[in-house]
Design a protein that fits this description.
It is built from 10 helices and 7 strands. It is α/β, with parallel strands linked by helices and 271 residues long. The chain starts with 6 loop residues before the first strand and ends with a helix.
Length: 271
């Protein structure tokens, strides 16, 4: 019960990583408000947990009024706000380079992935300061620290979130606000399953075979379960992480340490 007595707001809490974090926070004793655009998904997650521990708020993180309502819902449910997890996000689809990425896609991806966390932090931090401090956990991506082909809007939004995290950690550390960013690599979510399914035919395999190819150069040789991120968030949210702030934490099975040129040469040599 490392989070007993704490109240958390998690955006994008109806599916994938956000739902997994919510389940872990409740298990560790927190009261949680999950927010997202799809109310039916939020209700499904909440329905699997104790009603005394979780509530929901439907809304869009790109709308400042919705964000303020999310914060107010968390405050009404728990009486305070100790933890904010900015998990709501979107991919760049279809992938395209800078020339071919249309302006609407650029604006939409940045609105969800970067402006959304800006709005939530802007709304939440004054309440955290009033209550003596708090922990903010932003969910970015390894694409925020390494470029990937044909995803300029996505990598820019996640890279911006990394720097926004460190800015908040710097500016609000004296007010006992900690702010850290997790950069997941391959996590088995509905979004990535849908993306990887497109490669089944070209690789002549099933989805598991696609994931095997996708992770063959990662030291741990597998894709992660969304549940594996919950414990990390619990650490950063709780008192055990009280001296951790401004950290950019890749959770990628060791992918960050791999020389891609060396891996490619090794693969060719072994064929």
């Amino acid at each position: 019960m490392k989070l007993e007595g704490k109240v958390a707001l998690i955006t994008g809490g109806g599916t994938g990583i956000g739902a997994a974090i919510a389940r872990r926070f409740v298990r560790d004793g927190a009261k949680v408000c999950i927010a997202g655009r799809r109310e039916e998904m939020l209700k499904r997650v909440a329905g699997s947990l104790s009603p005394e521990s979780i509530t929901t708020c439907a809304g869009d993180v790109t709308e400042q009024a919705d964000v303020e309502r999310m914060v107010e819902t968390a405050l009404a449910f728990g009486g305070k706000l100790n933890v904010l997890v900015n998990n709501a996000g979107m991919d760049q689809n279809p992938p395209a380079n800078v020339i071919d990425t249309d302006s609407d896609t650029w604006q939409q991806v940045l609105a969800v992935n970067l402006t959304g966390p800006f709005y939530t932090m802007k709304a939440a931090i004054p309440h955290m300061i009033r209550d003596g401090g708090g922990s903010i956990i932003n969910i970015a991506s390894v694409a925020g620290i390494r470029a990937i082909p044909n995803m300029p809007a996505y990598v820019s939004s996640k890279g911006g979130l990394v720097m926004l995290t460190q800015q908040v950690a710097l500016d609000f550390g004296p007010s006992k606000i900690r702010c850290n960013v997790i950069c997941p690599g391959g996590m088995r979510t509905e979004m990535i399953e849908n993306a990887m399914s497109h490669f089944k035919e070209s690789l002549g395999t099933d989805l598991e075979g696609v994931f095997s190819q996708f992770t063959k150069d990662i030291p741990l040789r597998r894709i992660a379960s969304v549940d594996e991120i919950g414990g990390i968030c619990s650490l950063l949210a709780g008192d055990d992480g009280s001296f951790i702030t401004g950290v950019v934490l890749p959770v990628d099975g060791g992918a960050a340490i791999v020389d891609i040129t060396g891996a490619a040469i090794n693969n060719m040599a072994n064929k």
